[in-house]
Design goal:
- The structure is a single chain.
- It contains three helices and no strands.
- With about 120 residues, the protein is mainly α.
- The protein has a domain of about 80 residues.
- The termini are far apart.
């Protein structure tokens, strides 16, 4: 890390701490923070099922390429790569959802704070 990068990082940390001190000392109204958290939760609620569907489609596309082009080694390698990345994407999404559930249970957050697992209705 160069000296310039260290200075920028230090300036960022100091700025964030300066902005967060009133929140930490309970000297500021934090309703804006609740609103931001609610908006992030709304985005995640929509994004997780969409990303899960895309990861599944990517995996299935890799499977189709792998099975359809058995004579072409390069296409089979491409299909394997798509399947591997699809599985990695699914694992990341499912583990992220699991971590959110653990955090909710650990901190005793309210039941409706986290949306249910994505699925079909």
């Amino acid at each position: 890390m160069s000296m310039m990068q260290r200075q920028r990082c230090a300036a960022l940390v100091v700025t964030l701490l300066y902005l967060c001190v009133p929140v930490f000392t309970m000297a500021q109204n934090t309703t804006w923070l609740d609103n931001v958290a609610s908006e992030i939760l709304t985005v995640v609620t929509v994004a997780v099922p969409v990303l899960t569907g895309l990861a599944l489609a990517f995996f299935l596309w890799g499977l189709v390429v792998f099975l359809a082009r058995t004579s072409n080694d390069q296409a089979r390698t491409e299909g394997k790569r798509h399947m591997i990345w699809g599985i990695i994407g699914l694992a990341v999404l499912v583990s992220t959802w699991g971590i959110v559930q653990v955090v909710v249970a650990l901190f005793g957050l309210e039941e409706g704070a986290v949306p249910p697992l994505p699925g079909f209705q």
